[in-house]
Amino acid sequence: MNMSISYLNDRTAIKQWHSYISDHPQATAYHNIAWLQAVETTYQQQPVLLMAYEDGRVVGVLPLVIMRRPLMHNAICALPYCDMGHALGKDLTITQGLERFAGEYASKKGFTQLDYRNGSSMEPIPAEAMAKYNGQKITMKMPLATSSDAQMASYKSKLRSQIRKAEKNGLTIKLSHKTDLLYDFYRVFSHNMRDLGSPTHSKCWFANIMTFYQDKACMAVVYHGDIPIGAGIILMHGTLCSIPWASTLAQYNRLAPNMLLYSHLIGVAADHGMQYFDFGRSTLNEGTYKFKKQWGAVPYPLLWVDLCNPVSSSPQGTGDSAIKATLIQIWRNLPLSVTTTVGSRVRGYISL
Questions:
Q1: What structural domains and CATH numbers belong to the chain?
Q2: Measured between alpha carbons, how far is residue 351 from residues 20, 69, 87, 216, 276 in Å?
Q3: Looking at the DSSP assignment, which residues form a beta bridge with residue 142?
Q4: pTM more than 0.85
Q5: What do you get for the CA distance between the two ends of the chain, in Å?
Q6: What share of the chain has pLDDT > 90, as a percent?
Q7: Can you tell me the distance from the alpha carbon of 96 to that of 82, in angstroms, rounded to the nearest whole number?
Q8: Is 46 helix (H, G, I), strand (E, B) or coil?
């Protein structure tokens, strides 16, 4: 087995990458070159393509991003701004070889940290193992029906009534595979991120996501009259749909905009032939976990490790520090114009 290192200016490597991941069962939308293109174009971070070959054929890939961080040690992440970026290979020997190669590459380049986010498990967490994941970050996935109508019919009556509640409250929704909803999407998203105490991505990030993913991305905005109050984006690859961003404005949550948002985006995924819907990262048995569970999602493990220090790596999902909690509180009280401007400038240096 031979290993190679390529970059986004290598068209041959990109073509081979696309071909390999197109039908790999563990590939996600984040493995799409579009994600790396958006990273590089928006935040000028450096994507690196690790590829394994046997007899001239690609047998495995691992996407990396070199994170340049002012006032901090530079690091490598697989992958930033999302939950996972694991190695893909024809077997475990290949994926483990790519992981070792990535660690060696990082060390040779002088990096002391390589955040590796492994979401490759095809099996949910068994009931008897749940206690092991208490307080840990997991991802929530559910199987999809063959159409949006069939998907709606599969829900329990209580869930359908919650969706109808949003409709009865006069909420409407718009969907697009382009950037025409970007302004309204960003109004909701940036406001919600401020309220959560988290720096927001730049508007250009979302514009680039929609541009590079094309029909594999769908943006949705929920309205109360003419006011955007909920927003989300799904990304599709193979048979898996992921929802990396979903936001609602807290003062309108009584109208159930999140129910309308998710029901429509899940329906889009089903109508596009997706077989699974990944709701994204949650802490086991806490708020967002319970929201996702009601749709029929079950927990899958997320195994995050520092490949430069795999033995001494601390498990992800540990509690927030007092300093972080203080910073979050300060951020929540800043004017929206400040958090949007400053957040857009610093967000690219934050890998989560």
A1: 2-120+303-320 (3.40.630.30), 145-274 (3.40.630.30)
A2: 26, 10, 18, 23, 26
A3: 277
A4: yes
A5: 32
A6: 90
A7: 21
A8: strand
